[in-house]
Amino acid sequence: TVLIQGESGVGKELIAEIIHSNSKRKEGPFIRVNCGAIPDNLLESELFGYEGGAFTGASKSGKPGLFELARGGIIFLDEIGELPLNLQVKLLRVLQDKVIMRVGGVEPVKVDCRVLAGTNRNLAVMIENNTFRLDLFYRLNVIPITVPPLRERREDIPVLMNYFLNLFNQKYGMGKRMDTGVYNILTDYSWPGNVRELENLMERLVVTCINDIITIKDLPANIQNESSLTRKNTKIIPLRQALENAERELLESAFACYRSSYQIAQVLGINQSTVIRKAQKYGIKH
Question: Domains in the chain, start-ordered, CATH in brackets?
Answer without folding.
Answer: 2-147 (3.40.50.300), 150-235 (1.10.8.60), 236-286 (1.10.10)
